[in-house]
Write a structure and sequence with these properties.
mainly beta
């Protein structure tokens, strides 16, 4: 399966962005999808995950209440709506697909990765 992340850009603190992860090659409904991010000089970290059915979601504490993950299996796309953004949200955001039903927070649970999209939040 191939993944293409898009939607990154420059936004002011308090603003919003929506990232998209387009999946091709296989049916999206067979995969859980997670979002991870890597800030400059830091290790990549888990952000959010959605189960293959869309019925279960998970979030890092740092984004809970501000970010919302969703999926449209008919469009083979997963979204990450980011609101009330903070400068510490600045990072390259990656989407990844897992053959498991949920995926979880660990990177090695994911089989395929997209190329990343840069998000910059100015103060």
């Amino acid at each position: 399966v191939q993944l293409q992340a898009s939607g990154g850009g420059l936004v002011q603190a308090g603003g919003s962005l929506r990232l998209s992860c387009a999946v091709s090659g296989r049916t999206l409904s067979r995969y859980a999808v997670g979002w991870f991010r890597q800030a400059p000089g830091k290790e990549r970290e888990f952000v959010s995950v959605i189960s293959w059915s869309g019925g279960t979601t998970g979030y890092a504490d740092s984004v809970k209440g501000r970010f919302t993950i969703s999926r449209d299996n008919a469009k083979n796309t997963v979204y990450l709506q980011m609101n009330s953004m903070k400068p510490e949200d600045t990072a390259v955001y990656y989407c990844a697909a897992s053959r498991s039903s949920f995926g979880g927070i660990r990177e090695n649970n994911y089989d395929s990765w997209g190329q990343g999209t840069l998000v910059t939040v100015s103060s």
